[in-house]
Records
---
Amino acid sequence: GKPVLEVRDLEVTFKTYGGTVQAVRGVNFDVYKGETLAIVGESGSGKSVTSSAIMGLIPSPPGEITRGNVQFKGNDLTKLSKKDMREIRGVDISMIFQDPMTALNPTLKIGDQLTEGIRQHQKLSKAQANEKALEMMKLVGIPNPEERLKQYPHQFSGGMRQRIVIAIALMCEPELLIADEPTTALDVTIQAQILELFEEIQKKTGVSIILITHDLGVVAKIAHRIAVMYAGKIVEIGTKREVFYQPEHPYTQGLLDSVPRLDLKGKPLEPIEGTPPDLFSPPAGCPFAARCPHAMFVCEKVVPPSERLSETHQADCWLLDERAQR
Ligand code: SF4
Ligand code: MG
């Protein structure tokens, strides 16, 4: 079918005293109905900036979307006014952040926090909004929802708070949920429960999910497709099977080599020697050239083209191009 979201040629820069940081450098991907696309990368790879750009949350200044577009329901989100974007955010596209405590207001009852947005956006009566809140509390598996709606955030465990954050995100029945490291702040058993919850919710509602993470275990568990980001670019994208079992980009191969297959859980992505390039002055050629065990002469000079490996699989590497002389 047609994608729910189409990101094309997205470029985001930040002006600082030290110069201009090219945080996202021409990113392309689609998100389809009912799927989970994981965007994987080290910190500073541009994955969170990409999601902020989709949500219209790039602080400007110093940030700016300098190129590209984001198509969603017939709109280019990068062109919408702040006011129009507010009507999409939390309604058609919702976001879940890492720390459930900062996402919740400690002074407001859970019930009020659940119903605030939907009453504003959909003009529901208090009773209708409460009804919906109860439904969502049940959907995310919170016991005794009627009593719990009258309580405050501190009366819930970390895992329960993240369930509430998810319930709030789902109140307006969004088509797209963006979850940025949604389980990083939680302990391992709770993490697993929250990931199962995402899967359950997706089955029941058909919501599409963009999952931003550095945790390959999380990816292995719930992603359908994976985009690997490095130095502001997607260097490889494919189905979970393609990226995990037939990785073609040396960076992806390095990530996966560093992790024992059966123990993907909770592994940070810092396995390859060296550091990512300075995004104040990104390299002219392949961003991975300085760390790549296969780097050739051309790699340092010319940006590698995207090679299509299958209907669903793509990687940006000169090794895949017949024109490159080894
Ligand atoms: Fe390595 Fe060259 Fe491929 Fe970049 S383009 S990943 S440097 S082989
Ligand atoms: Mg981040």
---
Amino acid sequence: MYNLLKGKKGIIFGALDENSIAWKTAERVHEEGGEFVLTNAPVALRMGQINALAEKTGSQVIPADATSLEDLENLVEKSMEILGGKIDFVLHSIGMSINVRKGNHYTSQNYDWTQKGTDISAMSFHKVMQTLYKKEAMNQWGSIVALTYMAAQRVFPDYNDMADNKAYLESIARSFGYFFGKEKTVRVNTISQSPTPTTAGSGVKGFDGFLAYADKMAPLGNASALDCANYTVAMFSDLTRMVTLQNLFHDGGFSNTGVSDDVMEAFVKGLE
Ligand code: NAI
């Protein structure tokens, strides 16, 4: 432990259960001395185990549907009250596609579901930032991070409409990050994480194969949820003050690997 976040206050979205990337992040932020409010959609609070995490990290939980501006306004105001001041870090760790969940193919979407998924997975990031921005809720040199996946840049057929949502999310990080940087000296980045066995991750069709393939392809193997939590801690810390508007690949080198010996070997074996 390095006390990297001592004295810093934040909001962490998306801890559903102990597999969630946000759950691991909350644990690591706590270990590094940061204080925070935990939040999730009301329905997720009923289903998940967030109270155990709150107890462990000495945090309060405020329900908020990230698509509701009213909920977000309440969340930001209450968080500042609870934490006794402005916010230094925010983690947006939210994603959901109803088309994926209901098994609709990318070429056969129900557009009401597409719209809902976009609202939850991407536009919610704009709503979170706009609420923080308008309420002057962020401290100077604060850091806002959202989690994304490489399907925003390259085709992964079963990632479905989440690929489009992630592309939109990453664009919002750049566009809003410009204004947050210029006007409030706050940085905004996305972390593009390896496939990770969580509730959201496992919803992707053929996830196990996907996970094993990425692991064999990446020179360092897949980054775990805990690795992602550590990277996010670094992004919240003062050690990364000049990093903003970036999509940061956190994937053991997968994104820059054309093919690996392991994958080629398995492929050739399959041909025999
Ligand atoms: P998770 O299922 O544990 O977390 C997703 C969270 O989104 C849940 O806590 C859920 O309650 C929350 N959520 C859904 N609808 C919401 C709403 N309307 N308002 C507020 N919260 C809502 O899964 P995971 O994997 O930890 O997901 C976190 C982020 O990481 C997501 O953005 C996901 O796309 C991203 N990611 C995940 C990868 C994976 O393979 N698991 C890979 C790369 C990125």
